[in-house]
Amino acid sequence: MLHEDAVREQLKKVIDPELFVNIVDLGLVYVVDVVPSPEHADRYDVRIEMTMTSPMCPAGPQLVSESKRVVGELPEVSSVDVKVVMDPPWTQDLMTEAARDQLGIF
Length: 106
What we know:
By secondary structure, the protein is an alpha+beta fold. The protein is built from three helices and three strands. The radius of gyration is 14 Å and the shape is elongated.
């Protein structure tokens, strides 16, 4: 069985090209839904809701495509859908302590 934690761990491979921190620690990943695939036994469809650090983030398309790619590499995954949302807006408060330390934000 594929769990949300495994998907989030895989998403840590996606690094923001401007901040050089992974999207999970940056707090960009809001929702990860893992549901059984109706088309493939023992496989799962993954739905991700994520945001960007700003509405006009130039790295947005790259982050979405990389997220789809890395999650799709998991053998249990049948499909990946990534939706970009802007509500609630991203703030630095969503970052992990590790991300804050890496960026020198205290």
